[in-house]
Specification:
Layout lengths: L8 H11 L7 H8 L12 E9 L8 E9 L5 E10 L1
Length: 88
Amino acid sequence: MDDIFYSNREAMVNDLIENYLYKGMSYSKLEELLGPHNNYANIGQWTIGYEIMVDYGRDIDPVKGKTLYFKLDKDSTIINYQLEYWEH
């Protein structure tokens, strides 16, 4: 069962990556485009993440998902971004 809060994110992520995101984009522009990020875990300094999809299976613990990560430099500029699939 997919998380209903993110029902449109998975359909939009490829368009977002191909047409809107770019290295050198400022963090303020990113936040204007996507809203506040949701870092719930320690994912590293200067790295932020946006959950794209979370599947909880038949339990309260997530079993798989996709997260869009952004690596920022000290001036809050995007130096890299990556969509990662994870599974427990």
